[in-house]
Design goal:
The complex is a heterodimer of chains A (539) and B (306). By secondary structure, chain A is of the alpha+beta class. Chain A contains 18 helices and 17 strands. In chain B, helix 5 runs antiparallel to helix 10 and helix 10 runs antiparallel to helix 13. Classes of the chains: A alpha+beta (539), B mainly alpha (306).
Chain lengths: 539, 306
């Protein structure tokens, strides 16, 4: 009756709860109740068993914008990007993972607890959960998957774990070397270390064999894969959470955006990813098709790398504020993402742990000009180059026009993505950088990469903010840590270290055969998930 | 003759060596693939770990030596992105590219040769001018645009053909036409000029003087001789079609080598790009070698020259 349990799982507001979470229903103790239940059985048996008898039916086909890679079949290789989770949510399951309404939902872990000293995490492995080969998920598989993990942040997470113990087949204990408040963030969503593979099967078929015929504990079984072209899954009816609704899922790679839309219009595919600009408008206009935007965990901003140079105009916070006030975010949003992106004043994605809600960014060109005049630039100034990833040069052009309108004159320098991020991380740019990040983590991991001294994309820092970061890193008290991290975000906003633009909406579409596309169910997730919730129309 | 063949083989080997060096260096100039394999904002430690796993932390010459040593054993390496042997990937896509190239070639010859003949026979008149316009369009219209217009018209509006993918003969029609048109234009131009040259020759005049019907003069006497250079070009073009249909294969999501190359370039998948370019080079060098040898067999002056 595991499927029933899910409906009764209380949503965890935060993974960091110290309380042990129990999801078992209260056992029925009364003998009289037992008798009543027994008497009711024949009657219940005569009722149509809706969910229990429901069999997966039909097929849904996705038109995918990126080439599917076998690397994504194996959680051990999860790299710091969101795309592999498109496949992992079908094929695999994690101990704890983001689910609708819950960024750290119990999955293969029925419950967990943290010791008061923050050094021990104990997980209870879900009874009844099985892999696609019918073997039960055990504590040994959990330990094996963690130890085998070699993807993003593998070193960071393993360095902090002293031991993984399996006192019984349904209990796993992680012992940390020292308290690490971000352990569960890394274990549940920032890495693939908590996604479980069957130990015996991996050892039997080997690493390469596993990528060719992967077995997981997710709602869908692997059927076939043609590298870069097509991937097919079939429903795993024994999935613990629920029986998936759709029998077959097919993912077709269609690299060209116009072709993807044409395929959706013809009904060759049912769900399409990444349709932008005018094509998205066309999708919206087309009868029978539905626009399905999802706001992903990828805020965009402009960064002023010269703000620490006293000779630079950007050194003056009023100039940076003027730049922020000059950006007409609402109009840009409507023009480029049909108004679906989320305007934000923060570089931390909405919904991330320790997120601080900043004031709504405002558009006020008059005040921008006034601030520029006060800063000694009544006629504006030549701001040099505006660097951006060429994939988002359209956003850069729009922002640049806004800056130009208040007198901040800059030249657009779109660079191919790899070259752009290389230059960004090597600190070789000046003037203005249009940046973004879709990396997993929480507020602390984002601030570390983009604000704090020594961060991969930090051109300069503020000592008080650096000190706060050090302070939170050793703070075990969740509330105190949250307060410090929120204070840091507040300082970033007050000093206009960044001028924030938006949290990008990923524009997808669905055809008439789709009931629930699964898009946007999980906060910040770009793709359909959880797949067991996806339905055909009318089902 | 043996010396001649050996010399040509040596030239081919040098060409392929230079190609390997060039492509190896050129792909590395384009940037660091690790930045595309991790999310922007990933930590330096993660980027370094990926770089180390891909062997990109070694010096470029060590990487090249390792690449050549593997190549000598027929190993093109593992794809960074797909994590599978590149040669396996290549072989899985090759049949699709051959099929598309053959279909495109049939299109291009069916269009190019008759229109070339018509243009030569009606030189300076309507059909000649129409042929020129057709050739101009074929050579100048970008194939991605042609592809998208075809999809819009035949898939979206008329609903006759599938928009993309592979599997049936219907899937092949639009990509074959989009690829074939460009080459049809070249074949048409060559057929026209070749026919004009042959039609001006003495034996054609003699055939006409003998009172043979014009249709017989053109089809039996002129066309047969004019066809030789066209077929030679078609042979070389077929090899080119297999290897350069990058745009057409991408627009139509056709699972061929061109799309593999596109994916390789997109993801900075060095082993994939190197293998596709090198194997394409091998095909072109082999065809040229074969033509050189055939010429030498036919013409003794060639094999005797120093």
């Amino acid at each position: 009756m595991a499927t029933l349990h899910v409906g009764h799982v209380p949503a965890l507001s935060s993974y960091s709860s110290r309380q042990c979470v129990r999801h078992d229903r209260h056992p029925i103790r009364s003998t009289r109740r037992h008798l009543l239940a027994l008497l009711a059985l024949p009657f219940l048996a005569s009722l149509p068993a809706a969910d229990a008898a429901a069999k997966p039916e039909g097929q849904l086909t996705w038109g995918v914008h990126v080439s599917l890679a076998p690397l994504w079949f194996d959680p051990a290789d999860t790299q710091g990007m969101i795309t592999p989770f498109m496949v992992m949510y079908a094929l695999h399951d994690a101990m704890v993972k983001p689910m609708p309404g819950n960024p750290a939902a119990p999955s293969l872990a029925e419950s967990w607890s943290m010791s008061p000293d923050g050094l021990t995490y104990e997980f209870v492995v879900r009874k009844g959960a099985t892999f696609h080969n019918g073997k039960p998920v055990t504590a040994e598989d959990v330990k094996f998957s963690f130890e085998r993990y070699r993807g993003t942040s593998a070193k960071a997470i393993k360095e902090r774990v002293a031991a993984v113990e399996t006192p019984d087949p349904h209990k796993v204990v992680f012992k940390l070397k020292e308290p690490w408040p971000d352990f569960l963030t890394f274990y549940s969503s920032a890495t693939g270390a908590g996604w479980i593979v069957p130990k015996a099967y991996v050892e039997e078929v080997g690493e390469e064999g596993y990528k060719k015929a992967p077995i997981g504990a997710g709602p869908y079984k692997f059927v076939s894969f043609t590298p870069g072209l097509e991937l097919t899954f079939e429903a795993f009816e024994q999935y613990w959470r629920k029986v998936p609704n759709v029998k077959r899922l097919v993912f077709k790679v269609i690299p060209d955006e116009s072709t993807r839309l044409a395929a959706l219009k013809r009904g060759e595919i049912d769900i399409v990813y990444s349709i932008r600009g005018e094509l998205a408008e066309e999708l919206q206009r087309t009868k029978g098709l539905t626009l399905k935007p999802t706001v992903i965990s990828a805020p965009f901003w402009i960064y002023f790398p010269d703000q620490w140079d006293p000779k630079s105009p950007w050194h003056d916070p009023r100039v940076r504020q003027a730049a922020s006030l000059a950006i007409d975010r609402k109009t840009i949003n409507e023009a480029l993402t049909l108004g679906h992106s989320k305007l934000t004043g923060s570089m931390i994605p909405y919904g991330f742990e320790y997120y601080w809600q900043p004031p709504e960014p405002t558009f006020d060109p008059v005040k921008a000009k006034q601030l520029l005049a006060e800063a000694g630039h009544p006629k504006g100034f030549d701001a040099g180059d505006y660097y951006c990833d060429s994939s988002y040069a359209n956003l850069g052009e729009a922002v640049l026009n806004n800056l130009q309108a208040v007198g901040i004159r800059a030249r657009l320098r779109p660079l191919e993505r790899a070259a752009f991020f290389k230059g960004y991380s090597e600190k070789s740019y000046k003037n203005i950088i249009q940046g973004a990040s879709g990396a997993f983590g929480n507020a602390a991991t984002r601030l570390e990469a983009f604000v704090v001294k020594g961060g991969s994309y930090v051109y300069g820092s503020y000592p008080d903010i650096d000190a706060l970061f050090q302070q939170q890193a050793s703070e075990v008290d969740i509330k105190k840590r949250e307060a410090i991290l929120q204070k840091m975000q507040q300082l970033v906003q007050e000093r206009t270290i960044y001028a924030h633009i938006w949290q990008l909406a990923f524009i997808n579409g669905a055809g008439p055969r789709v009931g629930e596309a699964g898009l946007g169910l999980i906060s910040g997730h770009a793709y359909s998930a959880p797949y067991e919730d996806v339905t055909l129309a009318g089902k | 003759m043996t010396r001649y063949i050996l010399r040509r083989l040596a030239y081919s080997a040098v060409s392929l060596f230079l190609l390997s060096l060039t492509i190896f260096l050129f792909v590395r100039i384009t940037g660091d693939p690790t930045t595309l394999l991790v999310e922007p904002g990933a930590s330096q430690a993660d980027i370094d770990a990926v770089r180390q796993r891909l062997g990109l932390d070694r010096s470029i010459w060590v990487q090249y030596a390792s690449f050549m040593a593997s190549l000598a054993q027929g190993d093109f390496g593992q794809s960074f992105y797909y994590r599978t042997p590149v040669f396996e990937l290549y072989l899985s896509r090759l049949p699709n590219s051959l099929l598309l190239a053959l279909a495109a070639m049939v299109f291009s010859l069916l269009i190019g040769i008759p229109s070339g003949i018509l243009a030569a026979v009606r030189v300076g008149r309507f059909w000649d001018r129409a042929g020129k316009v057709f050739a101009l369009l074929g050579l100048s219209l970008p194939s991605f645009w042609v592809g998208l217009v075809l999809i819009l018209f035949f898939s979206v509006y008329l609903q006759w053909l599938p928009s993309s993918g592979s599997g049936t003969a219907l899937h092949l029609i639009m990509p074959a036409f989009a690829l074939g048109w460009y080459f049809a234009a070249a074949h048409m131009r060559l057929t026209r000029s070749s026919m004009l040259e042959v039609l001006g020759s003495e034996y054609i005049k003699l055939a006409r003087l003998k009172g043979l019907p014009e249709s017989l003069v053109i089809t039996k006497h002129a066309f047969k001789n004019a066809l030789i250079p066209v077929l030679t070009l078609a042979g070389i073009n077929l090899v080119i079609m297999v290897n350069v249909a990058v745009v057409v294969e991408t627009v139509f999501a056709w699972p061929g080598i061109g799309r593999l190359l596109y994916e390789g370039i997109t993801f900075r998948d060095f082993p994939v790009v190197q293998a596709v370019v090198l194997l394409g080079g091998v095909m072109i060098v082999a065809v040229n070698l074969l033509i050189d040898i055939l010429y030498a067999v036919i013409d003794p002056r060639i094999r005797l020259e120093r």
